[in-house]
């Protein structure tokens, strides 16, 4: 890869091993990559040039939007950093967001105008990765996925062309972008339909003792709860002084009606072992967490476990989730309520799986050397398999594996076939393969 070849035309700032910015450029959210070069794009033309170069040279290319990608770099390939494309333009309730923007900045820009979008839980999460993977956020029951609010996009294709994607111009491509991941090009701008939002009610409850009866109450509360309410159950070990160990339930109500939120949550608040830690109105950006900065001397641990979308949170599923945490002290368990606007979207209307799911579940044991041996891994895998057997589909934003089997588990067969045909149209050479990869297959050729 010669300097002249890569520097010809507009590709952005090229950073290679030995350059003064190399060490900072190759770091990502949870590790240090080993690409042959990092390209920092400052414009759409830079993105076009970098993609054309990668396609011509048959180089793997990984897109970094500036958020929490944990895939790192591609040895011998290119990392294309588009974090500089982070503008937020608001016109009425239509919001145009650069492909490198972070949700914290977007939330603040919208809050100033009394608007909101359902985003991730963390301010430093990227808009691009979260949206393309679906985006289960605090307003998922009120407004659906982040991808459900996507009404258009600007995309650089594998050929380096720029296309404007809308319901009328490229409806199949827009369908694929709503949950199909980064398989179809580099999205340099996302167009969203925002919602009026003056603030949110934010509540946190602590749990003492056996979580099983409390989770049964929570399940029953959410079965009939107004869609303004979304809740998350977390049980974590001691990891961070700002995140107390133990079990807790956090609730967010889309709006400022504290009385309505209290009424909806009353059975949970009255459940034995539940104590109220916080209750009040906040600006939506203040709900988003701040993730700790990556320490290269302490790499992020792996996990043994997974995630799934549960159609029903029955007593057996609750017991298996709580037992996972009990059996593995260094582990985390999470539940996020679905339904409401999430369920309003027909299964075939987006690429995202399991629209009939009522809960998103995740459990993982930290795979830390000296803490989890082969027997412990086998036990955690078996415990997780029993949980996943209760669900349907995998949420790609909560797994960083590029194993082909993951993508196959993420989507129903008909959805995968449709994605593969769209992939063949827009990226027949599979240039964008550094993801939960959908391999291109000409329509009708599958099987």
Automatic annotation (TrEMBL):
Pfam families: BBE, FAD_binding_4. Keywords: FAD, Flavoprotein, Oxidoreductase. InterPro entries: BBE, FAD-bd_PCMH, FAD-bd_PCMH-like_sf, FAD-bd_PCMH_sub1, FAD-bd_PCMH_sub2, FAD-linked_Oxidoreductase, Oxid_FAD_bind_N, Oxy_OxRdtase_FAD_BS. The keyword Oxidoreductase applies. It comes from the Bacteria. Its cofactor is FAD. Residues 31-197 form the FAD-binding PCMH-type domain. Belongs to the oxygen-dependent FAD-linked oxidoreductase family. This is FAD-binding oxidoreductase. It comes from Microbacterium yannicii.
């Amino acid at each position: 890869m010669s300097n002249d070849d890569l520097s010809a035309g507009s590709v952005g700032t090229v950073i290679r091993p030995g350059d003064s910015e190399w060490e900072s450029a190759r770091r990502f959210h949870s590790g240090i990559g080993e690409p042959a070069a990092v390209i920092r794009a400052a414009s759409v033309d830079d993105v076009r040039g970098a993609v054309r170069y990668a396609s011509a040279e048959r180089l793997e290319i990984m897109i970094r939007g500036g958020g929490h990608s944990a895939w790192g770099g591609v040895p011998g390939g290119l990392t294309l950093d588009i974090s500089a494309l982070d503008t937020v333009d608001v016109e009425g309730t239509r919001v145009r967001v650069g492909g490198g923007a972070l949700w914290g900045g977007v939330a603040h820009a919208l809050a100033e105008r009394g608007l909101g979008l359902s985003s991730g839980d963390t301010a430093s999460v990227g808009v691009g990765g979260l949206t393309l993977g679906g985006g289960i956020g605090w307003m998922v029951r009120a407004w659906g996925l982040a991808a459900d609010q996507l009404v258009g996009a600007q995309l650089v294709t594998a050929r380096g062309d720029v296309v404007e994607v809308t319901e009328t111009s490229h409806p199949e491509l827009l369908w694929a972008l709503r949950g199909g991941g980064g398989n179809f090009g580099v999205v340099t701008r996302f167009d969203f339909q925002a919602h009026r939002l003056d603030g949110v009610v934010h509540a946190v409850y602590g749990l003492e003792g056996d979580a099983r009866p409390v989770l049964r109450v929570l399940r029953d509360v959410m079965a009939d709860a107004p869609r303004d309410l979304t809740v998350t159950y977390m049980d974590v070990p001691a990891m961070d002084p700002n995140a107390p160990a133990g079990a807790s339930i956090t609730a967010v109500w889309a709006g400022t009606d504290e009385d309505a939120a209290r009424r909806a949550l009353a059975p949970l608040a009255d459940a034995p072992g539940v104590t109220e830690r916080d209750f009040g109105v906040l600006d939506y950006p203040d709900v988003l967490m701040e993730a700790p900065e990556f320490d290269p001397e302490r790499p992020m641990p792996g996990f043994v476990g997974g995630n799934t979308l549960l159609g029903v949170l029955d007593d057996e599923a609750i017991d298996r989730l709580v037992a996972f945490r009990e059996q593995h002290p260094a582990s985390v368990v999470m539940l996020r309520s679905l339904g409401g606007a999430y369920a309003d979207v027909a299964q075939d209307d987006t690429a995202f799986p399991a629209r009939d799911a009522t809960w998103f579940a995740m459990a993982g044991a930290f795979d830390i050397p000296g803490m989890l041996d082969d027997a412990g891994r086998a036990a955690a895998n078996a415990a997780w398999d029993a949980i996943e057997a209760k669900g349907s589909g995998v949420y790609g934003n909560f797994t960083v594996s590029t194993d082909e089997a993951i993508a196959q588990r993420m989507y129903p067969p008909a959805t995968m076939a449709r994605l593969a045909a769209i992939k063949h149209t827009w990226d027949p050479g599979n240039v964008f393969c550094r993801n939960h990869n959908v391999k291109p297959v000409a329509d009708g050729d599958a099987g």
